[in-house]
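STRUCTURE:
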């Protein structure tokens, strides 16, 4: 670096997770701002991916390095600064994951804003009979709702949606809309626990016919002790692994 009077450094090798701090410290020792360094991961993202396709791997490596060179040319020196952080959190989603996160942080003394788009907390948990792997009654977990609603450190915003999120880690500003009212919330961190929407499998395997139900429908019957069938066949992965949804049990 010193010999050639370099003002940018690019390393094409492995993952920045393991080696970027090392190379940045070397740049700093040699007199270059550490943020004028760029790392190209041609191992994890290239050679390992194209292990049996060396020509494609080489072409991809050239492209990755070429892009990195253009990016490095636009880098600006940066300096570390200390900023005050907001000691509170926004939790998006009032299902079991969101409630658990809010309760854990609230018990540690942090102020929590729990955002739920529905009029009640609980999410899909309200539709379940038992939970895996403990086989515990889902209703037992719903008892936390009363604790959360009376918790001094937790403010709940029901029937609310996120309008805008701005800022950075430690200092976020979240704008929510509750009915027709807009509310600004400051937070140091945001936890996204928005859950999922079950697929209603209309048109699949006779779903609209008698005795053909979804697993969520079955949960409701089990919960109310209304299952009368002796033999049950379960067809899994309905509505996925197709053109509309290529994934299965995945995000």
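SEQUENCE:
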């Amino acid at each position: 670096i010193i010999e050639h009077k370099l003002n940018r450094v690019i390393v094409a090798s492995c993952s920045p997770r393991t080696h970027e701090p090392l190379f940045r410290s070397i740049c700093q020792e040699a007199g270059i701002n550490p943020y004028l360094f760029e790392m190209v991961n041609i191992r994890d993202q290239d050679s390992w991916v194209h292990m049996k396709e060396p020509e494609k791997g080489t072409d991809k490596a050239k492209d990755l390095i070429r892009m990195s060179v253009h990016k490095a040319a636009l880098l600006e020196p940066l300096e570390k600064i200390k900023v005050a952080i907001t000691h509170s959190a926004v939790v998006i989603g009032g299902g079991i994951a969101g409630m658990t996160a809010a309760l854990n942080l609230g018990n540690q003394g942090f102020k929590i804003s729990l955002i739920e788009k529905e009029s009640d907390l609980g999410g899909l948990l309200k539709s379940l009979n038992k939970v895996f792997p403990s086989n515990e009654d889902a209703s037992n977990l719903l008892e936390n709702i009363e604790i959360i609603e009376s918790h001094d450190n937790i403010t709940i915003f029901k029937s609310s949606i996120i309008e805008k999120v701005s800022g950075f880690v430690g200092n976020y500003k979240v704008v929510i809309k509750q009915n027709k009212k807009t509310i600004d919330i400051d937070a140091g961190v945001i936890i996204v626990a928005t859950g999922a929407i079950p697929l209603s499998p209309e048109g699949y395997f006779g779903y609209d016919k008698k005795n053909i139900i979804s697993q969520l429908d079955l949960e409701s019957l089990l919960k109310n002790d209304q299952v009368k069938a002796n033999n049950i066949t379960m067809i899994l992965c309905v509505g996925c692994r197709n053109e509309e949804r290529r994934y299965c049990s995945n995000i």
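REMARK: Residues 198-251 form one domain.
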